[in-house]
Design a protein that fits this description.
The protein is 19% helix and 38% strand. By secondary structure, the protein is α+β, with helices and mostly antiparallel strands. It folds into five domains: 213 residues, no CATH class; 82 residues, Immunoglobulins (Immunoglobulin-like), CATH 2.60.40.10; 124 residues, Immunoglobulin-like; 133 residues, Immunoglobulins (Immunoglobulin-like), CATH 2.60.40.10; 125 residues, Immunoglobulin-like (Sandwich), CATH 2.60.40. Strands 42, 43, 45, 46 and 48 form a five-stranded mixed sheet that branches. Helix 4 crosses helix 5. The two termini are 56 Å apart.
Length: 716
């Protein structure tokens, strides 16, 4: 650069010597040239910084697309940010201001690929190669542009590492000055802000676009299906499956005294103290600390509780009772009468109610129905169904389950007919064996949720549950949290409304169709889910297939994740709020079209303002178009299905085109719409729409009209 400046000065000096006399004063010219040279030289340090920013942008995008995450972000005293990546590389960012007229290098994402953009004179355009192809930021064909200022003070850009330079042009095709009479237009950074939350770091560029890079989400340890409190009996051993990623070291950091806890081969084993243990704690917390071996450390924990073993033999005067199992809903026992001729009744009875009523009242209550059968001559039939002799294996009937965590008596007493033959009377003492049903172990399902690749029309997200139970996940607008009366709804209320929408949509298949071909488990998910929006969601039961539509630009959204039992909520609702950026047109192209309606046919002529601009023009029913909240949401949906159905290459056209849409529905409203689109599938202009109405079956003359925008031959 300095060498070229010297050449310019030498030529200028030669011209002055050839055409001037000794009286000529060239001091003003020399001063101007010196001033220009000084200004250009003063830009060099800023240019180094800006080109460093471009390289940092390149590194951020490569990390995003290469699965590299951010370990941490440190803010320096000078306002800079040091970014530590999971591949042990770092980057330093200094946010600042841009020059008012300076070109801004940025990136935009389309279909998961980032491309370089240039904002000049307020207009953002794609950077392209000599053949007009978009320049990807990373990958095999990735390139990193460089900025410079030439010796005449004009902005230049190189796409080949600095071998070939060309001047940057504004919207009118004129070169852009870097050095003016008022001074330099160079800013001091292409970054305007850096922010972060628990999941991501957000880098806001000077053109307003945002690069979102996940924090180190590949570092976690989950104990699957572990309850908040796990109940043990003496000597009992339980194992739990462990799922982890990015974990290099683990440490059992807490356990009650006398308990044994080990973590080996992704299995956590917990053993309660033996019954003959001399010293132990009956309850406490088990904690596991885990680390990535470098920067990050975290912990998981749950409670344990030791209860007495309620199984065993109890000897009474008339019966021997051996309780073999106690669960949260019942008891199992073997009862043996010491007199084989005695018929006896056995049942589980709430302990508090028994103590309140008294033994005699409970016996009278229990045998009341038996007396009825006896009085009407049916006792011989029912006796062997309701009473037992000898040895009997009792289990709580499934139709009358007990309540978890509640105290009961297993009661046994013999009965025989009195002398009148009209009622039964006890012929043994009432034996009662106390027990307590086990407390319900509530498994606190947790969901690890991460968002990525947020664009103006969609995003990717991943849900990793801590168990294999079913759950719903989906995206709602933040407006869903506001009731009609203006009050704020809870996340649970929004989740219930979300499930209700599914119920209304699939009501016939869920409840009315013979054989019930659709179950709630067909509509919910289980296991790890990796989702993209928009999406054609193909499920195991094809009746549950659905279209996940694009999002609306510049809108607040919330991702909901919540466990369900059928359609009923069984967990708290996990929410992740996010905002879609606004759609940024990348071309100023417009379209003119002429539309002629002839019966049920359309003749369409499309004329783009730029003959080299490629675009898509389609036709759809007005009723479908009106289902969408926003024109760009509709355009993104149209492009998605063109790609999904394999018609994109055929649908993409350029230049003036004459198209037809034939055999449409009669007397039906249609929209003809067009939007600019690159060969890479990037929407470049706003959607333009024209409404038409097909004719009825009568031979009416064609109706012609001219619209300000285009239309297309393919009918969606």
């Amino acid at each position: 650069m300095r060498q070229l400046i010297s050449s310019v000065l030498a030529v200028a000096a030669g011209l002055m010597l050839a055409g001037c006399t000794g009286a000529y004063d060239d001091s003003e010219l020399r001063k101007g040239l010196d001033d220009l040279r000084d200004r250009v030289e003063q830009l060099e340090s800023k240019l180094d910084k800006l080109n460093g920013d471009i390289e940092t942008i390149n590194a951020l995008v490569e990390s995003l697309q290469g699965g590299i995450s951010i370990v941490k972000v440190e803010e320096g005293a000078d306002g800079s940010y040091t970014i530590y990546f999971s591949d042990n590389t770092t980057a330093v960012i200094r946010s600042g201001s841009n020059g008012e007229d300076a070109p801004v290098i940025g990136v935009r994402e389309q279909d998961g690929v980032y491309y370089w953009t240039l904002t000049s004179d307020g207009e953002t355009t794609w950077l392209t190669d000599a053949d007009g192809r978009l320049l990807p930021v990373s990958g095999e064909d990735g390139t990193c542009p460089k900025l410079a200022v030439d010796d005449e003070g004009w902005w230049t850009v190189s796409y080949d590492g600095g071998t070939v330079w060309e001047r940057i042009l504004d919207a009118e095709g004129n070169p852009v000055k870097a050095v003016t009479d008022e001074g330099s237009s160079v800013g001091d950074s292409f970054f305007s802000a850096v922010s972060q939350d628990d999941e991501n770091v957000y880098f806001t560029l000077a053109d307003g676009s945002v690069i979102t890079v996940a924090k180190k989400g590949d570092f976690y340890l989950i104990l699957r299906e572990v309850p908040e409190t796990s109940v043990f009996t003496f000597g009992q051993v339980k194992t739990y499956e462990v799922e982890s990623n990015g974990v290099a070291e683990t440490l059992v950091a807490g356990r009650p005294f006398g308990w044994t806890v080990t973590l080996e081969n992704e299995v956590l084993t917990v053993a309660a103290p033996a019954e003959d243990a001399q010293m132990y704690e009956s309850e406490g917390t088990v904690g596991i600390i885990y680390s990535d071996g470098d920067e990050r450390t975290s912990m998981v924990q749950f409670n344990v509780l030791l209860t007495a073993d309620q199984t065993g033999v109890t000897e009474g005067d008339d019966f021997t009772v051996e309780i073999t199992e106690v669960t949260g809903t019942g008891v199992a026992a073997t009862v043996t009468a010491k007199d084989a001729s005695v018929y006896y009744y056995v049942t589980a009875y709430d302990a508090a109610s028994f103590d309140e009523k008294g033994e005699d009242a409970v016996v009278a209550e229990s045998k009341a129905m038996f007396d009825y059968y006896l009085q009407f001559g049916m006792w011989d039939y029912y006796r062997d169904m309701l009473m037992h002799s000898g040895t009997y294996h009792y289990e709580t009937p499934a139709s009358t389950p007990l309540t978890a965590g509640q105290s009961y008596y297993l009661i046994v007493f013999g009965l025989e007919e009195d002398a009148s033959g009209q009622q039964l009377i006890p012929n043994t003492a009432v034996m009662k064996v106390p027990f307590t049903t086990t407390a319900e172990e509530v498994v606190n399902t947790s969901y690890r949720v991460s968002l990525s690749n947020i664009t103006w029309y969609g995003l990717d997200y991943t849900v990793v549950p801590s168990d294999d139970l079913h759950y719903f996940h989906g995206i709602v607008s933040q407006s869903a949290f506001i009731a009609e009366d203006g009050t704020r709804l809870t996340a649970a209320q929004v989740a219930e409304a979300y499930v209700k929408d599914y119920e209304q949509r699939y009501y016939d298949e869920l409840y009315l169709t013979d054989g019930q071909p659709l179950a709630w488990t067909d509509l919910s998910s289980h296991g790890t889910q990796e989702m993209s929006v928009p999406r054609a969601w193909i499920r195991e039961n094809e009746l549950a297939n659905e279209e996940i539509r694009p999002l609306v630009p510049d809108t607040d959204y919330c991702l909901l994740v919540f466990g369900v039992d059928g359609k009923d909520l069984r967990t708290d609702v996990v929410t992740k709020e996010f905002h879609t950026p606004a759609f940024q047109p990348l071309e100023n192209g417009t379209f003119e079209l002429e539309v002629t309606v002839s019966r049920q046919n359309l003749n369409i002529k499309v004329t783009p303002s730029d003959p080299d601009m490629s675009y898509i023009c389609h036709v759809d029913r007005s009723s479908v178009y009106e289902e969408f909240e926003d024109d760009m949401q509709f355009a993104a949906d149209d492009l998605f299905w063109a790609k999904y159905n394999g018609t994109f290459d055929k649908d993409l056209i350029s230049g003036e085109a004459t198209l037809k849409a034939e055999n449409l529905w009669a007397s039906t409203g249609y929209v003809v719409y067009v939007y600019g689109c690159t060969a890479d599938g990037v929407i470049t202009t706003p959607l333009t729409v024209t409404r038409v109405l097909t004719e009825a079956g009568s031979d009416n003359p064609p109706v012609s009209g001219t619209a300000a925008r285009p239309m297309t031959a393919r009918v969606r």
